[in-house]
Specification:
323 residues, alpha+beta, 6 helices
């Protein structure tokens, strides 16, 4: 079957590279796409990187994967979009778009009649994500974020869909697998679930990391996942899984009580106890100090490293192993 996205076409046994222009209302964005139509029929898998700016590992890994895989390596169809949100990637380098200050991964599946970021989200669903048999969204800790690697998935009312989400998440081979209840909210993989598409979120690296070893770690995870989905054979140089995946439960998140300067006392990987002070937000005008306490006991999975924070900004998230 021909793989077609807009004017881009890949016949069976063909690989096509190009870009499509997304109309964002007040401007446009050129979105790169690589279509790998395998020599043998199978599932269609969509991989996106660059949903957020300042998260480089997913962009690099998706680009490398697109260069490595040829149609003879693939059973089914692979759609790779290494820079899914060009305004944020090239203009903002943060998780919000400089066009309108909106975080695209809070508003999927978007709105074709909305603002620029809502239109970007709707375009991605219409042209890239729809029709997938499995969807993978690649993220990392941005330029101001500490993060432990993890894979996230959603628990849905559809047992079969949830099982697909869970087995995909475990197949990546990361130590931490983080389910969240219900496919609600505007995250890309949750919105895909609401359309019946199995999907997961993979978080790899932190602080704007672009180290080749970190990219390799994600590439290995993607190859394990694609092998699990029946898309590729396991590469001979695939790194073995040294720690078995383990499910964790989110137990608390901490947001900034005010705008100011953030001085953390705990970062990703630290163990904290409920009520423990994990940092302070200081008003730069009068020096007022606002202590921030952990709402639960557990491990800090995500932590804000940036100095300047706004009211309501996520400062940290805590989780514990399910068992």
């Amino acid at each position: 079957m021909t793989l077609t996205i807009g004017p881009l076409r890949a016949e069976p046994g063909q690989k096509t590279r190009g870009s499509l222009t997304a109309d964002l209302g007040t401007t446009t964005a050129d979105v790169p796409l690589i279509l790998v139509n395998g020599s043998r029929p199978g599932p269609r898998v969509v991989i996106t990187g660059g949903v957020h700016g300042g998260e480089f590992i997913g962009i690099d890994a998706a680009t490398h994967l697109a260069g490595l895989l040829e149609p003879d390596d693939v059973t089914g169809q692979l759609v790779i979009c290494p820079v899914a949100n060009p305004p944020a990637v090239y203009g903002g380098r943060l998780n919000i778009s400089p066009l309108d200050g909106v975080n695209i991964n809070r508003i999927f599946p978007g709105d074709k009649e909305g603002g620029p970021t809502e239109r970007m989200a709707a375009w991605l669903f219409e042209y890239v994500i729809n029709g997938a048999d499995a969807y993978v969204d690649l993220h990392s800790g941005g330029i101001d974020q500490h993060l432990l690697d993890f894979v996230g998935y959603r628990v849905t009312s559809d047992t079969e869909l949830t099982t697909k989400n869970k087995t995909m998440a475990h197949a990546v081979g990361y130590e931490r697998v983080m389910p969240r209840p219900l496919p609600d909210g505007g995250n890309s993989h949750a919105a895909a679930n609401r359309q019946g598409i199995p999907g997961i979120l993979i978080e790899t690296g932190q602080l704007g990391d672009r180290d080749p070893a970190t990219v390799r770690r994600l590439l290995d995870g993607l190859c394990r996942l694609l092998h699990h989905l029946g898309v590729i054979e396991a590469p001979q140089n695939l790194a073995p899984v040294t720690v078995q995946p383990r499910e964790w439960v989110w137990t608390g998140e901490i947001v900034s009580p005010v705008a100011g300067l953030w001085y953390p006392d705990a970062i990703a990987g630290d163990e904290v106890t409920e009520g423990q002070t994990i940092g302070r937000v200081i008003d730069p005008a009068d020096g007022t100090e606002h202590k921030v306490a952990a709402p639960a006991t557990g491990t800090v999975i995500y932590g804000m490293n940036g100095l300047t924070v706004r009211l309501g900004m996520l400062l940290a998230e805590i989780a514990v192993p399910r068992d």
